[in-house]
Amino acid sequence: MSELTRFLYTPHYAPDKPYYVYSVDCDSPEKISGFIQGYMKCTHCGKGNHFRFYINSKNRHLAKCPDCKEVFLDIEDF
Questions:
Q1: What 3 state SS string does 31-50 have?
Q2: What share of residues in the chain are helix, strand, coil (percent, to 5)?
Q3: Rounded Cα distance, 38 and 51, in Å
Q4: How far apart are CA 20 and CA 7, in angstroms?
Q5: Percent of the chain at pLDDT above 90?
Q6: Cα–Cα distance between 60 and 51 in angstroms, integer?
Q7: What pLDDT, in 10s, does the model give residues 28-54?
């Protein structure tokens, strides 16, 4: 199942405003390239978090909510 690694992300456009991101199925997110990152809401509890998914997941992203611990599916709309 989806393993989450929480890390502090510092955006290039706002280096003074870092925030936490949950990396899905990757235990060293600072060293891996080729990802999609964004804010997504859990379909069970409705709470939102920032997640980082890796390219091999296509446009369907399966993750475990860090708040309610339920698995949810996020589908990107293009």
A1: HCCCEEEEEEECCCCCCEEE
A2: 10, 45, 45
A3: 6
A4: 6
A5: 41
A6: 13
A7: 888 888 888 889 888 899 999 999 988
Look at the pTM and tell me if it is higher than 0.70.
Answer: yes
Number of independent structural domains in the chain: 1
Residues 6+ apart with CB under 8 A from 77: none
Tokens of 53: 């998914």
Residue in the block written with tokens 């379909």? 43
C-alpha to C-alpha distance for 15 and 44, rounded to whole angstroms = 32
Q: For residue 61, give the 3-state DSSP assignment.
A: strand
Domain range enclosing 28: 4-75
Mean of per-residue pLDDT scores for the chain: 85
